[in-house]
Design brief:
Elements: H1 5-22, H2 26-32, H3 37-45, H4 64-77, H5 79-99, H6 102-114, E1 118-122, E2 138-142, E3 145-156, E4 161-169, E5 180-186, E6 192-194, E7 208-219, E8 223-224, H7 230-266, E9 268-269, E10 272-273, H8 278-306, H9 312-337, H10 348-358, H11 365-377
Parallel strand pairs: 1-4
Antiparallel strand pairs: 2-3, 3-7, 4-5, 5-8, 6-7, 9-10
């Protein structure tokens, strides 16, 4: 893939950081499920937490390709760090940078860009997952304020967030996805609680928790964009978020492939390296081919987004392909490593567990097929 000098430089920076700072801790934070505050702070110092924040608000203002390169390189070594960067930038910073007022940007973006406190995204509820329009959280106008009540689930980075963007129904009469608005909710506000962190299969160090909003009173100026347009804003946000998850999945696939390839060249059975057996060679060939296809889709989606073109269709394809590829490649990597691959001595079992989330979060593989299929059948 052709990259410009800036993109090559940022990729190298992310690669060096991941290899030197994340590789030594990735297994341990998976075991303890401890959010890596110190290395997230370091990622803030390197600018990774401000990639989606324009320079005038203290960020890097990176193009989408540079951003995806960072997410890929970080995820290649540690999926939990990769998801932390991805959710903060694409789900937290991007909507405020794109839809926010000047006051909202000045208030929330500079601190978020440093990574000192994160931004988070609250869409999902127990009854509103794939059917994102099923939001039951409500926001009722009271004078100049809005009063929010409801619960949210599976919210990434929420214990470390300074503010979240929350969807709530503002017009109870409106049907389906209509009558939903988006609000910026500071996390230190009365009535707002982040519940206990979830104990997950993978991405265990990444922070995921439910939220409760009980008579949370936010000032009118914290409405994001126009009243009633929240569903569309969240769909637009998820279009970009799907590129992020594709980049996380791509990184996990590359990480597992690298381990499997090195192992296959070293491991001797029947008097020769197992890579010399066509059964293994063909597995590596299939893994490399799928990875390359995912990479081309992901970076083409980035290119379209950067060019200001409609990229939703390609983002869904990239996410679908890369997450299914991550499952395929991490599974094959374990197979190549055999018994070793099944233990925590090697990182491939962690990557296999981490990859599963990519087929679920920010729209399941089935939802991606639905988005792609609808577009394919459009006249
Ligand atoms: N960008 C902008 N607007 C969009 C959009 C997009 N990507 N997708 C849909 N919209 C708009 C539509 O144009 C439509 O507008 P009008 O009402 O003005 O016509 C409105 O939003 C409703 O769209 P639609 O009828 O397609 O909504 P559905 O309820 O059928 O839902 C899916 C569509 C299933 C694609 C959507 O709910 C979805 O993506 N669900 C998955 C959600 C998800 O990823 N959850 C995980 C979150 S983890 S952070």
């Amino acid at each position: 893939m052709l990259l410009n000098e800036n993109q090559k430089m940022i990729r190298q920076m992310a690669r060096d950081f991941a290899d030197s700072r994340l590789a030594p801790i990735a297994q341990e934070i998976d075991r303890t499920a401890k959010f890596p505050e110190a290395t997230v702070k370091e990622m803030g110092e390197l600018g990774f937490m401000g990639l989606a924040v324009p320079e005038e608000y203290g960020g890097v203002g990176a193009d989408m390709t540079s951003y995806a390169l960072v997410v890929e390189e970080v995820s290649r070594v540690c999926g939990s760090h990769g998801l932390t960067v991805a959710a903060h930038n694409s789900l937290g910073c991007w909507p405020i940078a794109t839809l926010g007022t000047e006051e909202q940007k000045k208030k929330f973006l500079p601190v978020a860009a440093t990574g000192a406190s994160l931004l988070s995204f609250g869409l999902t509820e127990s009854g509103a997952g794939s059917d994102a329009g099923g939001t039951r959280t409500t926001a009722v106008r009271d004078g100049d304020d809005w009063v929010l009540n409801g619960t949210k689930m599976w919210i990434t980075n929420s214990h470390y967030a300074g503010a979240l963007i929350i969807t709530a129904k503002t017009d109870p009469e409106a049907k389906g996805s209509h009558g939903i608005s988006a609000f910026i909710v500071p996390t230190d506000i009365a009535g707002f609680t982040v519940e206990k962190k979830e104990n997950k299969l993978g991405l265990r160090a990444s922070d995921t928790a439910p939220l409760t909003l009980e008579d949370v009173r936010v000032p009118g100026e914290y409405l994001l964009g126009k009243e009633g347009e929240g569903f569309k804003y969240f769909m637009m946000t998820l279009d970009g978020g799907r590129i992020s998850i594709a980049a996380v999945a791509l990184g996990l696939a590359v990480g597992a492939y690298d381990v499997a390839r090195a192992y296959a060249k070293e491991r001797q059975q029947f008097g020769r390296p197992i890579a010399k057996f066509q059964a293994i060679e063909f597995m590596l060939a299939d893994m490399a081919t799928q990875i390359q296809a995912s990479r081309l889709l992901t970076y083409e989606a980035c290119r379209l987004k950067d060019a200001g073109e409609d990229f939703a269709h390609l983002a869904a394809m990239a996410k679908l392909h890369a997450s299914e590829t991550a499952m395929f490649v991490t599974d094959k990597a374990i197979q190549i490593l055999g018994g070793y691959g099944y233990t925590t001595e090697y990182p491939v079992e962690r990557m296999y567990r981490d990859a599963k989330l990519c087929t679920i979060g920010e729209g399941t593989s089935e939802i991606q097929r639905l988005v792609i299929g609808r577009r394919e059948l459009m006249d």
